[in-house]
Design brief:
Elements: H1 2-19, H2 31-43, H3 54-60, H4 63-80, E1 88-91, E2 97-98, H5 111-114, E3 117-118, E4 127-130, H6 147-154, H7 174-179, H8 204-212
């Protein structure tokens, strides 16, 4: 997980150096999610009926907060490479919490019990705006569907009529809100028509894994 996030960091750095500052830069780090799934029991051992040993907590209890610091350092490095007037958005699509079904004795084939961190009853994700024109304070209820319309509006591009979600206008000062497009537009580009996909049976093991992690119900 750290190797993948390191690769994302390096690739982004190289792109910024070779291609300059784009209008929109999006970077995804997956390691926080993986670390939380695998090491939450050592991060909050008192939340589990089958508490890890003191030795394991001492050896592995630093992984989750340590990974937070690692990603924070990466984000900090990338911010140094951006203009001072860059608008920065940090978000996650879900939170994480202790898995009440965690059983340390099971194998990975029982993924819903093997992981100690889960999304099921976890807090919601985060959404942070920082930069010129951002209004201090909290925003209203938002979902992942609101991110694309908001970014498009900030780029001066009206979201399409068929796009779910809303523009999170309350995150910005009046001057910025007044500059955002207010009308939705009809979609003018349609994907190329291909042969309809062939239906395939869903992998029951994959479905169970996604269900146990809280991605589907």
């Amino acid at each position: 997980m750290a190797l993948q996030d390191h690769a994302s960091h390096v690739a982004t750095t190289v792109a910024l150096e070779e291609q300059g500052i784009p209008d929109l830069l999006m970077v995804y780090f997956s390691g926080v999610d993986a670390a939380e799934h695998q090491y939450w029991a050592y991060y909050q051992p008192d939340e589990f009926s089958q508490r890890p040993s003191a030795e394991d907590v001492a050896a592995l209890g630093h992984v989750v907060p340590g990974y937070y610091r690692y990603i924070d350092a990466i984000v900090g490095d990338l911010l140094k490479r951006l203009p001072k007037d860059a608008l920065v958005v940090v978000l996650s699509d879900h939170g994480q919490g202790p898995n009440p079904n965690y059983r340390p004795e099971v194998t990975i084939s029982e993924y819903g019990k093997w992981v100690s961190g889960t999304h099921g009853e976890a807090p919601p994700g985060i959404l942070l705006f920082s930069g010129p024109g951002v209004k201090p304070g909290r925003v209203g209820h938002t979902t992942v569907f609101d991110i694309a319309p908001t970014l498009l509006a900030l780029l001066g591009i009206p979201p399409t009529q068929d796009m779910p979600g809303r523009v999170v206008t309350e995150a910005f000062v009046p001057e910025v809100r007044e500059s955002l497009p207010t009308d939705r537009v009809a979609r003018t580009f349609m994907p190329m028509e291909f042969a309809p996909p062939t239906p395939a049976a869903a992998d029951p093991d994959l479905l169970e894994k996604l269900r146990s992690l809280g991605y589907i119900r």
